[in-house]
């Protein structure tokens, strides 16, 4: 069984990069036909009513795919 844990954003530089978020969601975006063209997704997590919320980021923003 896999356990999902958010990445804690702690330094001032990290908070600036992730738009003041306290946590960041990170994921792999695999391209099975071209593994070398796979990407990583980093998205700030905000909290609403005690639940995590991932908001779509601008393509040219700092939280886009890398």
Structural account:
By secondary structure, the chain is mainly beta. 9% of the residues lie in helices and 35% in strands. A hairpin with a 2-residue loop joins strand 3 and strand 4. The chain is globular. The chain starts with 6 loop residues before the first strand and ends in a 12-residue tail after the last strand. InterPro entries: Glyco_hydro_beta-prop_sf (IPR023296).
Protein traits:
mainly beta
Specify the number of helices. Answer: 1
Q: What pattern of helices and strands is seen along the backbone? A: EHEEE
What's the total count of β strands?
Answer: 4
pLDDT < 50 stretches: none
Shape: globular
Percent in strands:
25-35%
Biggest sheet statistics = 4 strands, antiparallel
- Based on secondary structure, the structural category is mainly beta
C-alpha-based Rg, rounded: 13 Å
- How confident is the prediction overall: mean pLDDT? 72
Helix content range: under 10%
Give me the side-by-side strand order of the main sheet: 1-2-3-4
Task: Give the termini separation.
Answer: 27 Å
InterPro entries: Glyco_hydro_beta-prop_sf
In short:
The chain is mainly beta.
Per-chain topology:
Blueprint: E1 7-8, H1 12-17, E2 23-29, E3 39-48, E4 51-54
Antiparallel strand pairs: 1-2, 2-3, 3-4
InterPro entries: Glyco_hydro_beta-prop_sf
